[in-house]
Specification:
By secondary structure, this protein is an alpha+beta fold. 49% of the residues lie in helices and 15% in strands. It has 12 helices and 11 strands. The strands form 4 sheets. It has a 4-stranded antiparallel β-sheet with strand order 4-5-9-8, covered by helices on one side. A 3-stranded mixed β-sheet has the order 3-6-7. A two-stranded antiparallel ribbon has the order 1-2. Helix 8 runs antiparallel to helix 9. It is globular and about 80 Å long. The N terminus is likely disordered.
Length: 427
């Protein structure tokens, strides 16, 4: 009797549920076992006690985010990432759990500090970069644009709905030919009777193709960059989901085309009248990207620690090797540096004194340091480091996404350099 490979696999799994055991007749010694690695446990690495004094209200947000990650995200997210599918049911859960607001005050919702927002972003990114990016897009950009620049009527209509994920929100600034130089955007808003007509293209717009509201930034008749609320079912609004991504695969970004899209007066953001207003929104989210990098780095560090304890080579756990301990110590040192930086910058933000250069320093330092930790962890896992089931590869790839969005490392360096020298090196 012949059996299919699936049947054989099922039989072996039934006999050897705790690992892979190679029976007599295979190329491996009888009894050779590779364990089922458990790499998703939350270890709470805090070597410098940075989070020791987090208040109860902030910690409650953090704990809720962690429970969501452990119970609902980690069991399924690798599959969504591999298939490049957007798990919108998890976005709905973020709204139900009040984890989407990114520290923004919304009537009818409890207070959420900037520290709580950072901890939530860190924890969600520890689970998955796409889930962390949902908060950056829906809360940090779309919700914040309406909260800071919208009219009372616009705020009443959109803030509760976006906070609960009853509506989806997008933020359309970047264009195919204008990324780092987004201030030079070419999308136009032409005044007509009763409002404006928008024409142009946008690219890399998270949530831009799933239905909902897009905050479109366009150049008005006065030459200034201004904000407009555009429902995605508006005539002339078309969006194509970008395919072939190797990073942040479980959230959809869109290429948007605006062809004579009419925006009535009531959908013009009254507080968004120049690029300075756009930059104000971006400043707040830039620090959120630094928190996201801490979450990714934490996931990679946790995975490396757990793998080193469980993987045996040369008759002992990897953790017994001096060089492995040095590498873990290096990762922990880098992680502590990131934690200290985001906590300090968030304190400044809560005091209302965070500068653009300080926000840039946080993102510049944290995303490049997260890359270092991810690379080290990926290498420590050897061949197992490229398997989605072992967590690190997904974070390794997703860090590349956050490393360039909300301003590339080069742009952050120029912002920092301008603050050091007093000279702008921007073209």
């Amino acid at each position: 009797m012949t059996t299919t490979s699936d049947e054989t696999s099922a039989e072996l799994n039934a006999v050897f549920p705790d690992g892979t055991v190679f029976p007599v007749g295979t190329a491996f010694p009888e009894g050779t076992v590779e364990p089922e690695y458990v790499l998703n446990e939350a270890l709470d690495p805090d070597p410098a006690s940075v989070f020791k004094d987090i208040g109860n209200e902030d910690r409650a947000y953090w704990d809720r985010a962690r429970a969501f990650v452990q119970d609902e995200v980690l069991p399924v997210i690798a599959g969504y990432w591999e298939r490049a599918e957007y798990p919108l049911h998890l976005v709905k859960r973020l709204g139900e759990l009040d984890l989407l607001r990114d520290g923004i005050d919304v009537g009818g919702f409890p207070a959420m500090s900037k520290t709580a927002a950072g901890l939530v972003t860190m924890e969600l990114s520890r689970g998955d970069g796409s889930i962390g990016t949902v908060v950056a897009v829906q809360g940090g950009l779309a919700l914040r644009s309406v909260a800071e620049c919208g009219s009372p009527e616009q705020q009443a209509r959109w803030l509760p709905a976006l906070s609960r994920a009853e509506e989806y929100g997008a933020f359309a600034l970047t264009e195919p030919a204008h990324g780092s130089d987004s201030v030079g955007l070419e999308t136009t808003a032409t005044p007509v009777e009763g409002g404006y007509v928008l024409n142009g293209e946008k690219k890399w717009i998270g949530n831009g193709s799933i239905g909902g509201l897009t905050v479109v930034w366009a150049r008005g008749d006065d030459g200034q960059v201004q904000g407009y609320l555009v429902p995605q079912d508006s005539p002339g609004y078309s969006a194509t989901t970008i395919e072939g991504k190797l990073s942040l695969r479980a959230i959809w970004q869109a290429h948007i085309r605006l062809e004579d899209v009419f925006v009535p007066w009531e959908n013009v953001l009254p507080g968004a009248r120049s690029f300075k207003d756009t930059a104000r929104v971006l400043l707040a989210t830039r620090l959120g990207v630094a928190w996201s990098a801490v979450g990714h780095a934490t996931a990679c560090y946790e995975t490396a620690v757990q793998y080193a304890a469980q993987r045996r080579q040369f008759g002992r756990p990897l953790a017994a090797s001096q060089i492995v301990q040095e590498r873990l110590a290096r990762m922990q040192s880098e992680l502590a540096t990131m934690q200290l930086l985001v906590i300090q910058m968030t304190r400044l933000d809560e005091e209302g004194v965070l500068t653009p250069a300080q926000a840039a320093l946080a993102k510049f330092t944290c995303t490049r340091t997260a890359r270092s930790i991810a690379s080290n962890a990926r290498d420590l896992l050897g061949g197992n480091g490229i398997l989605l089931a072992n967590r690190v590869a997904r974070h390794f790839a997703d860090i590349e996404g956050i490393h360039t969005y909300e301003g590339t490392e080069t742009v952050q360096a120029l912002i920092i350099g301008r603050s050091i020298t007093g000279i702008s090196a921007f073209a």
